[in-house]
Amino acid sequence: MARFIGKFQDFEKYIGPRLRNIVQTSISRKYKAIIGKCEHCNSTAEILDAAHIHGRERKTIIRNLYEKNVKDGLLDIDIKEFEQSFIEEHMPYENNFKILCKKCHYEYDKVKTGEITIDESISKESDVPDISTVANDSLLPIELYPPDIDEFKELLIQYKSAIIQTFYLNGTTDKKLWNAKNISESSNILGNLRSRKEFRRENRTGNIQKVIVEVNY
Known about the structure:
Layout: E1 3-6, H1 8-14, H2 16-35, E2 48-52, H3 58-69, E3 70-71, E4 74-78, H4 79-88, E5 97-101, H5 102-108, H6 118-121, E6 142-145, H7 149-159, E7 161-168, E8 173-179, H8 189-194, E9 208-215
């Protein structure tokens, strides 16, 4: 049986991606099929996300399990046993996930853990400020999917590409493939995007409403 012996940083680096895939392909997929709609706005959008409840994020669960098994600063554990414990920690689903559409997921992840609940933190559509009022601002509005920037970077490094969708004030959109093979752990994701020729302040004409960037996986 395969074992891991080492510190948390190395465990997360080498085992973390596999645990993330377990969440995406097994655990959360089942729960999304059961719920079938956004639990906040009731949207039945084609693409739904399984958002970890604040305080029960994947990395938090990994850290908690690690600390339960660490001895003298090192973890020495059978990897399959750890994976099984990780899966069990996600049960029951309703205590660990909220099924949300992408808009509600983005809003939910902007809330600081433990401060307010989802119903307080996600504005209804009528309460959302018109983003066109800030479209001419010097800071280009960019939304990432997944919204957590560390998870976004982790997935981008793994899959090496993303879809950049630009929304314009006249109602049109365009999509481009971002070849991100040179992105590394030290890369500034938002800085990299805003430095693209078409998004630089001097090249924008003020007609961009927002930009959505989603890892291509």
